[in-house]
């Protein structure tokens, strides 16, 4: 089947779908599925804008609300993960995933689903070490800290995903797995984004948590966004035993959704021709959610996941075939995800703007139904209970409790260095917010450009790349042109879909001199969110 993959959408749904329509008109290519790798911006109204961690000048209504209201419907099934520029209050309603509009599905904090037999997983947000070991405690109305920490990846989501044993076909993350740039054309990447050099050479660009998942899951495809640059890589994984077949991952980072940018990729993915056209639950993932339900934490205290270190009675939460079978029997072998989208907030009305609309903490009926069906903890309900309990306690008692770790392991060191986290020193969104309005009133928002007067651009076919049989890893996209391995293998020869025994790409070391100063970092901040001069 044909799968379209998009980078940072930034709320430009009309642009994405117009481009897909143009693709069909010109080349008779119609994707069966659209994947979006974060910064989707499912903004329903002015209150949602206040919950989006961007400077006020970037708080625009865009067009998602038209799909939320039912005025429009996504022409293709769309599955997305969250990024670091989202209406966090909206996505927080669906921690286990759910429909944000008809035919548009959010994977949740972390999730795995199936479509036509293809297994699709993802993790939302970006990595920040100082929040990684905390629970999901944030809820609207957010303050200057929680509006950012709400989209930071947590160790419990990574832990759940690491319990997966069955193969994953496609995986999505917003930020890149750390070190992935060593498996592609690093020289070309630094030529396009020279301000990445310091982090690339110090190996601190990207998420160490995503890198850990990449090495564990070894998916066929891994898609990311966040850095607003197209980059391809091919990673051959090491085998754990002589019996294990070699595996490789085709990595692709997508550009942002702007006119004349290569922000869409079309790939052919092998699927089950006998499978239905509905989005389905993944039985192993549901079983893992049930097995790890006792680990759910909604406090700010830092804690580590269970591991084999003598401090935990249980550390392996992977599930047995019997547990998976029980899930199938619970569902009567009908894994179809119900189309139970429900409006949970007022929709933006251009004729009646409400700039003073306040965000509220909402429990979504989809989550209530999902948790009741599988016996899971509704995270938002737990947060509300915790707030009610804390309001009746003294400040000293609350602080004392927060110092305790619910797993009894608060004193364990973090598995990642807290002073060397991915993008921790030069995280573009964090610095940008600090320098360009991070301390602004969160109530400031804008609904311009008006949806009735959309930006003056139309879909350009240069926005699309079609990958006929598999992701092509060429000398332009994924290897140095002077790499000896490339010369021997013929340069632009595509990587075949089933060719899992191909040779690993040689790691490429930077051989150009260059220092990344403060001015270059600021340039990166601007480039990461705003359109560059070349886009105009």
UniProtKB/TrEMBL annotation:
Task: Write out the biased-composition intervals (Polar residues).
Answer: 415-427
Q: Which GO terms describe its biological process?
A: mRNA splicing, via spliceosome
Compartments it resides in:
Nucleus
Bias kind Basic and acidic residues: ranges = 385-395, 485-510
Residue ranges constituting the Lariat debranching enzyme C-terminal domain according to the UniProt record: 235-380
Which UniProt keyword terms apply here? Hydrolase, Iron, Manganese, Metal-binding, mRNA processing, Nucleus, Zinc
Q: Which GO terms describe its molecular function?
A: metal ion binding; RNA lariat debranching enzyme activity
Essential cofactor(s)? Mn(2+); Fe(2+); Zn(2+)
The protein's predominant localisation is: nucleus
Show the InterPro entries listed in the entry.
Calcineurin-like_PHP, DBR1_C, Dbr1_N, Metallo-depent_PP-like
Locate the region Disordered.
385-536
| Stated name of the protein | DBR1 enzyme
* Annotated organism of origin: Ploceus nigricollis
